[in-house]
Amino acid sequence: MRHGAPFLVLALLTSFATSPAAPSAAEAPKKLEQFVVVLVDGTRVATRGRAEIVEDQVLFTDASGARRIIPVAKVDLPKTRAANRPPVTIYATTWCGQCKSLRRYLDSRGVEATYINTNTLPEAEKQAAFREMERLLGSEHIRVPMTVVGDKLLVGFDRAKVDALVGLTPPAGAVR
Asked: 81-113 in b/e burial notation, b at 16+ Cβ within 10 A?
């Protein structure tokens, strides 16, 4: 077997770059303790550390410590990307047009998110949500929609910024 340069599956699957170029070793993300590879039949395989793509194969160590080699064609890359995405939380209101557009867009792209509609929460939960929004913004001037992914925050709705934040590639035919 001819070995090409190994690339982290993690970098290919969760990269925020829109360029199809593979990352250099210096740009590669840090090694994770746990990663999930989702196969086209829906099977989820937990890994120890990183997985590599070498030519047309995915190489990794599974949770039991066994070295695994799987053809790339048997890996569902979009579902693997989604399985390894940090949780997405959206703070919104019922009256906000951008909030509705953001939700429709993420739903159309298959992104699972927790939606916190501050208008429909009981008073105690609403106050807790407002305190969290103020903490995230560093301000008492709350704006919506607020998208939180891991430790990153986006206020408003801009498709390119949302795609970058949640690790999506632009939809086919999208003009940027």
From this structure: bbebbeebbbbbbeebebbeebbebbeebebeb
125 C-beta neighbours (distance < 10 Å), count = 12
Calculate the alpha carbon distances from 159 to 12, 16, 167, 171 in Å: 20, 13, 12, 10
Tokens of 57: 């194969």
Compute the distance between CA of residue 134 and CA of residue 137 in angstroms, rounded to an integer.
5
Neighbours of 50 (CB within 10 A): 20
Two tokens, residue 134 = 């103020």
- Tens-digit pLDDT profile for the chain (176 aa)? 334 333 333 333 333 333 334 444 444 444 445 788 889 999 998 888 777 888 888 888 888 889 999 999 999 877 887 787 788 999 999 999 999 999 999 999 888 899 999 999 999 999 999 999 999 999 888 899 999 998 899 999 999 999 988 877 766 655 55
Residue 108 makes CB contacts below 8 A (sequence gap 6+) with none
In whole angstroms, give the CA distance from residue 146 to residue 79. Answer: 25
The total number of residues written for the chain in this structure: 176
